Task: structure prediction
Amino acid sequence: MFKLIQILLLTLLFSITSIASDTKPTLTIYTYDSFTASWGPGPKIKEAFEKEHNCNVKFVGMSSSIGALRKIQLEGKNTKADILLGLDTNIAQAANKTGLFAKHDLDTSNLDLPVPYTDEYFVPYDYSYMAFVYDENKVKNPPMSFEALAAMPEDFKIVIQDPRSSTPGLSLLLWVKEIYKEKAGEYWKRLAPHILTITKGWSEAYGLFLKGEADMVLSYTTSPAYHIIEENRTNFKSAHFEEGHYGQIEVAAMLKSSKHKDLAKKFLHFLHSETFAEIIPTANWAYPVVKTKQGLPKVFKTLTQPSKMILLDGKTVETHRKAIISEWLHSLER
Amino acid sequence: MLQEAKRLKYSLLPGGLVSLLLLGFAFVLFFILFFSQEDASVAQLDSRVFSLLKFTLYQAFLSTLLSLLVGLVLAWSLAHQSNFKGRSLLVALFSSSLVLPTLIVVFGLISVLGRNGWVNQLNLYLFDHSFGSYLYGLTGILVAHVYLNASFASRSLLHVFESIPKEKYKLAKSLNFTTFQRFMYVEWPALRTTLLSIGSTIFLLCFTSFAIVLVLGGSPAYNTLEVAIYEAVKLDFDIGMALKIALIQLAVTTLLVLFSSNFRTGVGNVKTNTLIIPWSESKHVKRFQVAIISLFSLFFILPLLAIIVDGIGADFTRILSAPLFIKSFFTSIGLATVSSILTVLFALFLSDTKRNFTLKHRLPDSTFSKILNIIVSFSGNLYLAVPSLIMGLGFFLLSQTYEAPMAVWSTIALLTANVLMSLPFALAVLAPVMQKTAQRYDKLVFSLNLNPLQRWVYCEYPYLKSSIGYVFALSFCFSLGDLGIIALFGSDDFSTLPWYLYQLMGSYRTSDAAGVALILLAITLCVFILLPRVFRSSVAKHN
Result:
């Protein structure tokens, strides 16, 4: 009897371990929710990478990329994440300070980026320009500058994102700061009546805008391309701001605690492949960081082309980030 | 004294232990919050914290004032319109506001009053004019607070109106009082104390309001301290800041609890007196009263109706098959069951102990008993002094220091919060009944020398049964609908229905959110209506 139980237990143990060893390694990637959405780049990238490297890719989407970072911070060394994808250069330094991320050892000097880029931890994978998106049918005279925006009638409402939780929200703060310098706080006071609400992440804000709750939403110059290509709707435009547009370079990094470091490194390398670069424009609606044979879709030529990319250095941002956010919080109070 | 205590040990010990446990928990919480501060951050109390405090007090003050005003006018109208059709149904409905999940209320209000809500659409259709998006910000917060609290206040005030001796009305009538004089000389004196105690409760509830402000605030300008704590942890990972805000919040709530009178709000079972006030109102007054009742009923029912209408159209096969929904559903039901059982047990033990200190024939030493009574009462009303986000922060800090799976910490945190949240209400319902049974049966029980179990079976339970059912339903619904601590601990791995709903609302998946809102509303109302029926007893009715 005792032997029988022993044998049973042993076979059970074997079958469990054999199931475990049978499965392919799973690469867990924390990111923002619109990346993993069915219409986002996530599913295509998962398929392409899984085929190339015989593994499983699991995307875990948070309402924002900073939200994903916070989750990793909460979980600390026990995090299930192998890779964090979706922060931008503004917040990457802050993430780096947690000491949770590992160096990538990739050469990023030859990438097709509007500004030179070097960082030992975070790998860029696409870029875009921040812009306010509106519906041409509803807004006849869109504001062409921050001044014009603040001077719009009282019932003209915009939706923006919280700079503490989302990268576009932080970009807007830096954008305003770069243009208005020490008068930024005063500008936010003037803009405050136009802010309908401040959301945690980009998808919430964009969803609210599409539902007709607001006249404009903080998004990207590349957002209208989605409506043209996917929905055949040309009425969405991004407002061209004379002052120049703030740039956003999205980055990814792997975690020190990752159990699949080799695979993670391969994934970071994959971010600079042509396969990846071809998926990005029509799935994440941004510019890829490597040139492809195919080039960009034609629609991209019709998009707003900012005269200049405003982009603060990540280290500078990190030094002043708290102060800038605190200035913003103060100006919004009444 | 000592001998008395020895004889009452079975009545003193369980409640005493529960009380000690609760106070111990509060102490640990204070200890953690106070000592996890870094010395550097204590000094810089920046002006943001002050403006947060200012806004929190300001909105709580306005909310309380409006809720009391609306509740008073409504109760006054209901009291004098005893023939109003569907009156008892309305009163019962208003009393359900206590258990409606706040998130559901917000959801319904957005459907009715939002930029694309019913009111605006109707207005756009009729007059080609929209009121715009006034629901985000202070207005929205006030509207939601009045929705929840005015109906709650009207219930308690109606009770007062109906307990005014009818002779006083007759006297007033014979003195030829006007409606105003009648109110000033007959009704107002009776209402004053109740108004004060409900007012202080509402103020505390609004001061620590979380879900409403989180969803309808829309901007840091409209943050309450509670939401600011959440944001500091969840958005900024700035634990220092969260602690700073938490300590200020604690200081204020403790002061408020100390200054406000006892937690006396009369949340007992709804039984409105049908005795008709001997006074027929003049035509204008009657019209006014009917208008008030109709308007408020509309204001109260439309959002609930909106949830049903929006929800019915949802794709339920998709909602019910979503793994996260299933997980949230079972987590919610499980937590609600466990925490309501714990609440009933704790409340029974505490009120059993409490009556030893209030009844003269039990423990005679009066000052000593008074102090002990206050301590036991305070331990049961802990939640008012330590709001849920602060508790959450405490658990959060613990989870950072002591390693255990996040799900374990989350479960403990949620259970604790749910039990503490329902305890004040549970005590308010059960303590008076237990006091009464003791008054009535103590002599008999002591002379027959019944053991505690016999006493419970023969004397207490038959009388408590229906109250227990009510408390069970109340705390089950509280737990089911709470979006507090879960906002800090919620994730894909650990989620409850309100958290799932909040996620859906956050990503503006409106149709799914409407479906989940309807499910949550249906469960809440079913439990709130059906559970007390299961426990209904014939003895208590004659009590």
Remarks:
- Chain B touches chain A at residues 46-48, 51, 55, 114-116, 132-133, 136, 218-221, 231, 234-237, 403, 406, 491-492, 503, 506-508, 510 (CB under 8 Å).
- Chain B has a mean pLDDT of 85.
